[in-house]
Amino acid sequence: MVIYDVPEVDKKIGIKLYSTSSPGTGGFIKGSLDDFKVFEILHNSIVDDYSLFKNGKYKFPLFSLQKAGLDSNHALIEIKNILGINFRCLGIKDSKAVSTQFCTTDQNFEIKSSNTPHTKLRLIGFTKDRLRKSHLVGNQFQIIIRNMEDFNQQDFSTETSFIPNFYGLQRFGSARLVTHLVGRQILKKDFKNAVHILLCHTSSFDTKFSTEIRKKCEDPANYNSVLKTLPLGMDIERGILISLLNGKDSISSLRTVPINIRRLFIHAYQSFLFNECISSLIMAGEEVTKCVDKDLCFELENAQILGKLRKFSTGMDAVENVPAMQLAGYGLRNREGRFENTMLKKLSEEGLTTKDFFVKEMQELSVQGGFRQLPLMVSNFEYENKNLIKFRLPVGAYATTLLRELMKPLNPIEAGF
C-alpha cells in the first residue's frame, strides 16, 4: 500500500492514516449548496405503510423537510420562530448542503406545506407509529467535486470496503475543532474551562473574523463590546456571554446552549476517542473492518441495515457480520476484546474513567455508550459526468470520510470539508 501524508487537521480529530492506496483526485467540494445533496432513506416499515389521510390508525404526521444554508438544528429553530411548530428530525445535516430529510411533530395544525427562508416543508402522509431514529436507515449522496483529476473508479471501488467508519470533521466544529474539547472538559467537571474553550478557542484553520472575536473574549471586560459585534450565526456565544454578564455560573451559562447541541459536545469527544482507537489499531496491524474471534459484531439484515449484536467466533460467516466497537460511556465494559482494551487504554491516557461519563452536575449530558460499526459500508458507488459522485451510506456514517479517501486533500478545510 502507498503511504500518503495525512493533513494535520485530520490528526487533530484522531484520523492518522488513509486506508486506500489510490492516488487522490484533489479538487474541492461544497463550491455551492447544490454541489452537495443528501437524501435520507427510511426503513421499509414506514415507506410501505402510511396513509395520505389522518385517521384513527394512521395519526402521526410524516413531513419531508428540504433545507439549504442552515444545519438541521437551526432549521428547526427557524421553523419554530416563523410557523410556531416544534418539529423533530431524525438526522442532523450540515448547513453547506441541500438536504432532504424527514420530520414529525406532536402539535395539532392544518399545515400541508409551507416555506421559510431556508426550508421547504411538505406533508407526505400519516404513519401508524411515531417516527423514531431507528426508522432512518441511511443516506443517499450526490456530490460534485470541482477541479478533480481523473481516477480509476474500479480500483477505488474495490477499496471502499476497507474504509473505516471514522467520524468526519463536521462532528468537531470543522475549522475551529472545538466540540470535543468542550466535551472533554465537561467530563472532567471543569465547567469553567469548558465555557472558556467554547468562547475563546480557535485554530490555525479558523477564520480571521472568528479568531479576532475569540481573542477579545479572553478578557471578560470585553464581553459587552463583543456582544455588539456578534453576527447572528454566533447565537451560542451570545447566550453564554449574556448569562455570564448577568452573574450566572459556568454550569448555568452552558445550559443556555440548546440541549441537542450540548449533547454534541460529549458525543464529539466520544467520536474523537473512537477515531483515535481505530487509527492506533490499524497502525498496529489490526484489520478492523472484518470480524475476528471474540469481536462483538452486528448481524447484517441487508447491505446497509444492521441487526442484533452477537459475539463472533471462528466458523461464523464473516460476510454476514461487521465488527462493532463500544463507544466510551459509563456503560463501557471490559470484555478483554481488542477494541475494548484499546478504548480503556485511551481513556486512561486522557485521565478519565468510564464513571466520568455520568455527569452528576449536568445529568442531561451523561452518556451510557453504545456501539458503532467499524467499516464505512459504502454501497451503490457511481462516478458520473466527470465530477459527480453518487453513493449510499448507513445512518451515522459520514460522506466526507469516503471523500477524504477519494480526494486525499492537502488542506481539507480549503477543500470544503
What does this structure look like?
With 417 residues, this protein is α+β, with helices and mostly antiparallel strands. The chain has three domains: 104 residues, Alpha-Beta Plaits; 86 residues, Hypothetical Protein Yqey, Chain: A, domain1, CATH 1.10.1510.30; 109 residues, Pseudouridine synthase. Helices cover 30% and strands 20% of the residues. α5 runs antiparallel to α6. The radius of gyration is 22 Å and the shape is globular.
Portion of residues within helices: 25-40%
Low-confidence parts: none
CATH-level-2 architecture of the largest domain: 2-Layer Sandwich
Class from secondary-structure proportions: alpha+beta
CATH superfamily of the largest domain: TruD, catalytic domain
Q: The biggest beta sheet, please?
A: 10 strands, mixed
* Average pLDDT reading: 91
- Helical segment tally? 13
**Straight-line distance between termini:** 25 Å
Encode the helix/strand succession as letters. HEHEEHEEEEEHHHHHHHHEEEHEEEH
CATH third-level topology of the largest domain: Pseudouridine synthase
Strand % is 15-25%
Number of strands: 14
Give the overall shape: globular
Domain tally: 3
